[in-house]
Amino acid sequence: MDTTSARLGTGQASWLDWLDDSQLGLAMRSELWLYPIVEVVHILGFVVLVGSVFMFDLRVLGLSKDIPVTALARHLLRWSVAALVLIVPAGLMMFTAHPHDFATNNIFILKLCLIATAGLNAALFHVGVYRSVGRWNTRIAAPAIAKVQAVLSIGLWVSVVLCGRLLAYT
Predict the structure, then answer these.
(1) Please, what is the Cα angle at 72 between 70 and 74, to 5 degrees?
(2) Is the pLDDT of residue 7 over 80?
(3) pLDDT higher than threshold 80 for residue 1
(4) Total domain count, the chain
(5) C-beta of residue 51 within 8 angstroms of C-beta of residue 86
(6) pLDDT class for 13, splitting at 50, 70, 90?
(7) What is the dihedral of CA 82, 87, 88, 91, to 10 degrees?
(8) I need a labelling partner for 56 at 20 to 30 A (CA). Which of 39, 84, 136, 156 fits?
(9) Is residue 12 in some structural domain?
(10) Do 150 and 133 contact (CB within 8 A), yes or no?
(11) Dihedral angle computed from the Cα positions of residues 83, 71, 122 and 116, in that order, rounded to the nearest 10 degrees
(12) Which domain holds residue 36?
């Protein structure tokens, strides 16, 4: 058993082997411009997603108080969804190029955990403090918990971006 199979277990290694041997995995490794183009699409998607998140978080933190939080949320949601349409397929395509390397890379695993934590933070925000947004929608400071979650969101997404960049060096 190779070291990757030993670390991952037989079932997961065979799944990774299947991805590695797939037509997409082979194309991502062999077509000169495919991986760089997909990576640029992934990065552009992250720029739009993280930019949207930052704009919303900065509003929650008190910038641009004349813009209603609900209107900004509605506007930015479209951009966030569009960004995910770029990010997810591009990320999966890049993963197929080197599935064993990514699956065993601690920085990659940390990046996925940070993304999951950021998503959980956003979900908790929307099912929690955001339900009271009518009281702090315009020109009123957001509750402290909303500000804490906004700061956490910014920190998590900066960390995700840092992990993404570190992947190129690990």
Answers:
(1) 70
(2) no
(3) no
(4) 1
(5) no
(6) low
(7) 170
(8) 39
(9) no
(10) no
(11) 0
(12) 22-169
- One-letter amino acid at 56 equals F
| Alpha carbons 39 and 22: distance in angstroms, whole number | 19
Question: Distance from first CA to last CA of the chain, Å, rounded?
Answer: 24
Q: What is the DSSP letter of 10?
A: H
70-96 pLDDT, tens digit per residue, is 999 999 999 999 999 999 999 999 999
Q: Residues 38, 89: contact at Cβ < 8 Å?
A: no
Q: What is the dihedral of CA 111, 144, 51, 106, to 10 degrees?
A: -10
pLDDT for residue 168:
87
Query: Is residue 3 in a domain?
Result: no
Q: Could you tell me the pTM of the whole model? A: 0.88
Give the span between the Cα atoms of 153 and 40, in whole angstroms.
24
Tokens, residue 25: 């995995």
